[in-house]
Amino acid sequence: MLIDIHGNFYAPGSNLPRSKTLNDSYLSTARKVGITHIVGIVMGTWGDLSHTYVPSLDDMKYGNRFLLNVIEENKGFVFGYAFINPVYEERALEELGFCIEKGMIGMKLGASVRCDSHLLEPFVKKCIEYNIPILQHIFQRRFGEYPNVALSDASDLARLAKRFPEARFIQAHIAGGGDWQFGLRAAADIPNIWIDLSGSGCDSGLVEFALRTVGEDRLLFGTDLTLDTGIVRLYTLKRLEADIEKISFLNAQKVFVERFQ
Amino acid sequence: MIIDSNVLIGNWPFRRLPYKDPGELRKVLSDEGITRVIAGSLDAIFFRDVQDGNEMLYKAVARHRDFFTPAATINPTYALWEKDYKQAIEEGAAAIRVYPEYQNWDILDHSSFELYEACRKDKLPIILTAEIEDIRQRHFMDNPRDWLGGEVRQLIEQIDGLKVLVVNARADRMREIALTLPSQKRKQVFFDISAVWGPFVDDIALCVNQIGVTQFVFGSHAALKTPETAVMKLKISQITEQDKKQIFTENIKQIMPRLVSCHA
To answer: Residue ranges of the alpha helices (H) in B123-192?
Structure first.
């Protein structure tokens, strides 16, 4: 079993070149490399109708509906995160409830609000109630503010995770750009943060550092936009004699409470 | 057989690299099927006198010359660079690496054209690095000046026959440079695959289709990156097996004729 806990799908009209072919390419390549389960996201229209990481209510709903179709068409292979912008408060909580009722198994947060925003609290509490994890988009270490987004970094997430020890958080794409050493150190002593190993980066030493600081019990296999880097990280872990079963699926089963058959 | 056009040996000031010496790096590269490597000096990027870095490189690879071929670093704005260049030829360098972005000169500086002319005459490609590390993770003191695709384009337009290899560039930068050149001139610019996204996005396939397979070579950007990823993404890319072979092994021989003659 190999569970990709960070997959992306693209709805029609997405603001990406080749978006129509990317879903097929992802599904077929994932099968080819041995992925047995995908937990995916649709980030609205990827910036066409609203900001990719700060989706409007309509954009968010549009992406989530499309993901429900992908899940339906790939039953048992594709699972989903509800992509949520907490700024919409009650309406976003309704959307989360709708998605979970329809079978989604996690919540994905972009950069609509920072992790320490009070707007996030009801959503974290709801996820605890639903017993689902939260995948938080992370810029591993931020320096100040960035235009049009409220990016969280790994230390922001660590503070949130400490406040809600009963919630389960996934720190997104450790190799997705940013200072991964900072990201791993920030999560090192926080037991309710798991590290998503996805991302296009392939820096030497990253996997070794992840094992040393966070440990094999809190590492999760993921791909995000590049399957090759995810698969190679597994090879590296194998070479380092890490427990591959934990990182491939046992840890994910724990985070997602045994959802995968 | 794989030839790696983009390896850097030495120390990087902003993070510890996992390979303690060229022998250990050689083993990691060899394990991936890499049989020949064109290696530059990481230390030279920051040294005032880059020749110190070159000499460290020549010494480091001396016992591994059947595997590592040096790519000397030259700063054409530094006194007596011509002597460094001459030594590079004597040491069997297969390419010249330049870092205008770190060493405070412009690609189109008048003083640098003498170097470019020498490289053209001696059939040595110039290697430019799009980025050493991803901008999102850089240390605040790792602050290179960005060079622009337009400058590379002007350089190529001004010097017929000079070959320029751009390494560790993403697809958008490759396309910015190559697709804005006339098709004949496009044949002077080459790219390694170390920073291009592999499947499922598969920017390798996109770029090969748009720019042409002859303009691509294999490069890993080790020791800063893991060589396994570069090998894997090319292996599973949706391009033909023949194209993969060209990128893994064949194209580099056209760009670096000295590599062939050094190891014939």
So the answer is: 149-158, 171-178, 183-186
